[in-house]
Amino acid sequence: MKILHVIPSISPLRGGPSQAVLAMVKALRECHVDAEIVTTNDNGSGVLDVLLNQRIEYEKVPVWFLPRFSPPLKEFIFSTALTSWLWQNIPNYDLLHIHYLFSYSSTCASAIARWHRIPYLLRTLDHLSPWSLTQSALKKQLYLFLIERQNLNRAAAIHCTSAKEAEDIRNFGIQTPTITLPIGIHQPVEHLEYKHKIHDIYNIPSKISIVLFLSRLHPKKRPDLLLAALQKVAAKNQKFHFIFAGTGEPNYINYLKQLVASLNLISCTSFAGFVRGENKDLLLQGSDIFVLPSFSENFGIAVAEAMAAGLPVIVTEGVQIAQEIAKANAGLVVQGEENALADAIAQLLNSPNLRQQYGENGKRLVSYHYSWTAIAQQLTTIYTNLYQG
Q1: N vs C: which end of the chain shows fewer Cβ within 10 Å?
Q2: Are residues 157 and 214 in the same domain?
Q3: Is the separation of the CB atoms in 241 and 212 below 8 Å?
Q4: Confidence (pTM)
């Protein structure tokens, strides 16, 4: 079987979905599935420095990059070159795995696949959750009515990464079969020295615990709520250092920096910016608590990465793997309001033993359920069944 993954961008600046599709295709190829990616050269406000209109190795994965139409409209990312490529090349594949809704690439790929009678699996990335549908609601309703509902109804299956995401799809009225399969996480190489190294780099006293937020800086992730909760923790004379890791729109980052100042958190807050590779591992393995108070997350790759690194996590109910975290006793699941979040942070700051217990449980959860090898093997079976069906 030959499988084509379609996604509007695999820029690291686009966050978890880009990381996931690269890791997914790499794991599939290790399971002897002939899988590759087609995408654009989008890189946020700029473009990736990659060869266009040819199959290249990118992050050890075969990728076709097509030029985007500049400037992009958030994740919509229009590309006439991608349209032509899909029309000419989709018949060369047995099945498509399409990532994103409300994006030009996914819309175009779905329509062309149907024309050529090629089955496709559609991954919605939580775009049909109640919170997501309230964002730009009128535009989404119109897009769903004219285009996206047909793409969903005529897919061979819909790929969900949690039971809650599948429930949201059913509640929306889509009857297409759903397949619930989480995103995989690579087990990190352990570096015991990172616990000391992070304190040296950020000039943090050795006995001060580090609270980490590592994700895209976006209102959906509610970093402002986290700052308000941390201010309540600080007001009770509890010591900590908070690290913001991630990037976002410049205006929003400036807003967060102003908020840090207004809440008198400057002395105990660092902005690490966008991190990857060793710098990312340093933060995940060197910190003490990971917090993500999102309105909505279809999976929460950063949360799973934190658990893989042995970090206890605090998440809100909108993070779709919250039930798994609670069941595994790998962290705290709280309501999305200041006092509940502040109490959870204070509880973990005051209990190193509880942090260690949650961290160990989280590592086991990731190892047992989010291995890329196991997920790729399950995907291979799914592809075979869809193709033969």
Answers
A1: C
A2: no
A3: no
A4: 0.78
Measure the CA–CA gap between 389 and 380, rounded to whole angstroms: 14
Is residue 212 located within the same domain as residue 168? no
Look at residues 153, 93, 147, 97 and name the one whose alpha carbon lies nearest to residue 125.
97
Tokens for 109?
A: 């790929």
Asked whether the beta carbons of 380 and 387 are under 8 A apart, the reply is no
Q: How many C-beta atoms surround the C-beta of residue 172 within 10 A?
A: 15
71 falls in which pLDDT band (50, 70, 90)?
low
Q: Are 130 and 107 in contact (CB under 8 A)?
A: no
Whether the upstream peptide bond of residue 71 has omega within 30° of 0, thus cis, is yes
Amino acid at 86: L
Q: How far apart are CA 205 and CA 45, in angstroms?
A: 37
What's the CATH number where 243 sits?
A: 3.40.50.2000
Strand ranges (E), the chain = 2-6, 34-40, 42-43, 46-47, 55-58, 61-66, 95-99, 120-123, 157-160, 178-180, 210-214, 241-245, 269-273, 289-292, 313-316, 331-334
Pair 161, 299: CB distance under 8 Å: yes
Q: Are 136 and 90 in contact (CB under 8 A)?
A: no
**291 inside domain:** yes
The answer to whether 61 and 30 are in contact (CB under 8 A) is no
Instruction: List pLDDT tens digits, range 240-250.
Output: 999 999 998 89
Q: How many domains does the chain have?
A: 2
Nearest Cα residue to 129 out of 289, 317, 304? 317
Whether residue 239 sits in one domain with residue 133: no
**What is the C-alpha separation between 202 and 286, in angstroms, rounded?**
11
